[in-house]
Amino acid sequence: MSSDDIAIRVSNLSKCYHIYDRSQDRLKQYIIPRLQRLVGRQPKNYFREFWALKEVSFEVKKGETVGIIGRNGSGKSTLLQIICGTLSPTSGTVEANGRIAALLELGSGFNPEFTGRENVYMNGAVIGLSKDEIDARFDDIEAFADIGNFIDQPVKMYSSGMVVRLAFAVSACIEPDILIVDEALAVGDTKFQTKCFRRFEELVARGTTILFVTHSTEQVVRHCHWAIFLDKGQIVMRGHSRDIVNAYLDMLFGVERVKQPYSDLQIKNLQIAGNTQSISRIETDKFENRAGYNPYEYRWGNREAEIFDFCVSTGGSLNTTRIETGQPVVITMWVKFHRRVEFPIYGLTIKTPDGVTLFGSNSRDFDNGPLFLPVDQGAVYKISFTLRDQRLGAGEYLLSVGVAEDRAGEIFPLDRRYDAICLHVINRSSRSFGLADFSMNVEVTVAS
Questions:
Q1: Are both 321 and 377 inside the same structural domain?
Q2: From the CB of residue 420, how many other CB atoms can be counted at a distance below 10 Å?
Q3: Exposed site from 54, 203, 245, 441, fewest CB < 10 Å?
Q4: How far apart are CA 151 and CA 4, in angstroms?
Q5: Are residues 108 and 134 in the same domain?
Q6: Looking at the domain assignment, is residue 9 inside a domain?
Q7: What is the β-pairing status of strands 329-337 and 380-387?
Q8: Which residues contact 161 (CB under 8 A, 6 or more apart)?
Q9: Three-state SS for 26?
């Protein structure tokens, strides 16, 4: 890749902090090792090392939006601060090609005693804009922030929402080459977040590079070209946003992905719960051979129960991949339990291909729930999710199914098959558009 195409290059970046257990240890560290060196002794350290980052390397092309996800304390904020130049690394280098605007901690860079207007000019000067350049952009900044007369009041009088509005307005309206955002939008309301993401798209279209740290996995899937997963200061994984998000969910739940899709499921004469029909054999590839199966599903859980088959039915059609807007749909899955489970939970989620969740519920939280039926080892259960008032708009969708266990309020995934089923929705009865069809009626009357 040509250097001209690179916006950010991070090479072997590490950051180490010294942790002192007692305040006096800091003073000892300053004095005693020096004396020990003078007398030729091996100096003793009175601190513990904490590596916030360790050997982190990656490159971001110009115009890309890259998400960075990870648990609290994984090194995300430290990484962004070093890229912005507000923190020095212990080792390694960062190259950033272009003007950087950063929205890090809430209100960082603002002087609480200054007015909003004064802080706009101060922040613009810090990143190298002249007064004339800030003058030319000020009206746009003020309009985007939409904080009214508070623009001429001290920032210490602002609410947290007003602070982030002004901070984002400054960062986004100066048209930076690189925009770095660290969880700052979490305090914004939905209307403001929508405005921010629309601005993101405008900046990307103009070639701005965006680094985006968030705990919202849907935002990563929807807005980022690719993503980085950090844990304990190291890059665990990088790549397609959806793959990174799924790996992150694995880490959050503390469940290692089982690579083999099945244990021994060649079991004879199993009884389907709630049905007198017996099955002589469970095929190891039954789920994978069904119409609509997505081979790019993401499967995880401890496999103490396994989802081995599914069926989508509507209007008398079984194992279909096509449904009609407004028609009831039944999604059925079959689960084999390898141990007794006292409180199993069965779930269904519907998403768009770009990761937006349209619907999700489960046997614990549905309208007539909770439904808890203990199951014994070796049992096979048939679970049916009926969508009576299905109003999906025309288009493509992905279904996720799962089974988990509730242990005193804590959820343990047994088998989750994310984005495992492809569904095509057609709408013959309406010319409406969008993700949902609300069967709108229009009346026009003469106003008296």
A1: yes
A2: 25
A3: 441
A4: 39
A5: yes
A6: no
A7: antiparallel
A8: 187, 188, 189, 192
A9: helix
DSSP 358-401: EEEEETTTSTT------B-TT-EEEEEEEETT--BPSEEEEEEE
* Domain extent for 152: 63-253
Average pLDDT score over residue span 198-217: 84
Shared domain for 67 and 178, answered yes or no, is yes
Would you state the pLDDT for residue 253? 56
Give me the number of domains the chain comprises: 2
Burial 361-383 (b: 16+ CB within 10 A, else e): ebbbeeeeeeeeeebeeebbbeb
Mark whether 320 and 392 lie in a shared domain: yes
Rg for the chain, CA atoms, rounded = 28
* 241 shares a domain with 95: yes
Both 119 and 163 in a single domain?
A: yes
- The residue with tokens 């003078």 is 38
Instruction: pLDDT band for 255, please (50, 70, 90 cuts).
Output: very low
Structural domain contains residue 418: yes
Helix, coil or strand: residue 310: strand
Residue 29 tokens, joined: 């560290």
Q: What is the pLDDT of residue 106?
A: 55
The stretches of 85-186 forming alpha helices (DSSP H) are 116-126, 131-145, 160-173
Residue 109 belongs to a domain with what CATH number?
3.40.50.300
> Is residue 10 in a domain?
no
**pLDDT at residue 154 in the model:** 92
Q: What are phi and psi of 266, to 5 degrees?
A: -85, 70
DSSP for residue 3: G
pLDDT tens digits, one per residue of 30-67: 888 888 888 888 888 888 888 999 999 999 999 999 99
Q: What is the pLDDT of residue 275?
A: 35
Instruction: Give pLDDT tens digits for 413-423.
Output: 999 999 999 99
SS3 content of the chain, % helix, strand, coil (to 5): 25, 35, 40
Q: Residue 309 above 90 pLDDT?
A: yes
